[in-house]
Amino acid sequence: MGDYSKAFEFHDKALKIREKTLPSNHPDLATSYNNIGGVYDEMGDYSKALEFYNKTLKIREKALPPNHPSLATSYGNIGGVYDEMGDYSKALEFYDKALKIKEKTLPPNHPSFATLYSNIGLLHDTMGDYSKALSLLEKTLAIRQKSLPPTHPDIKQTIDNIDYVKKK
């Protein structure tokens, strides 16, 4: 709904409860940090988003096995912030870490790949590598067409992205 102050207020309340009741490396604390990072990310406060996403990552790296899907989420979130900040090499580095975990833990057409392929594809588009962008966006479309109803807006958005890249 875009009410960031209200979102932050409730995520902060949850964090304070978790900080009082859980050990400092508990995965639920990471969830709170991730949620707060997401609010900052949506607000465009990328340095604060990175701060909280990195807190999340630090806990998850200690508390979870190395190929846990939550680590892939953290890497993807951090990659997304770097992408928004225009630091494309850092974004690709973190997107790649997320991709490696997903490739080890999920079937190749899992819907979770679609978002990551789309993000990486659009990043390559921004960087001017249109053939790489097109390849990744076509993978995105194939997965979404198998996993979503034909009228889902993500399918249309992916087709529009492909057409946009093709025109370039």
TrEMBL record:
UniProt repeat feature TPR, residue ranges: 30-63, 72-105, 114-147
InterPro entries: TPR-like_helical_dom_sf, TPR_rpt
Keywords: Cytoplasm, Cytoskeleton, Microtubule, Motor protein, Repeat, TPR repeat
GO cellular component: kinesin complex; microtubule
Keyword Acetylation tagged: no
Keyword Cytoplasm attributed: yes
Xref: SUPFAM superfamilies: TPR-like
Subcellular location: Cytoplasm, Cytoskeleton
Origin: domain of life: Eukaryota
Quaternary state and interactors: Oligomeric complex composed of two heavy chains and two light chains.
Function: Kinesin is a microtubule-associated force-producing protein that play a role in organelle transport.
Family, similarity comment: Belongs to the kinesin light chain family.
Protein name: Kinesin light chain
Native source species: Rotaria sordida
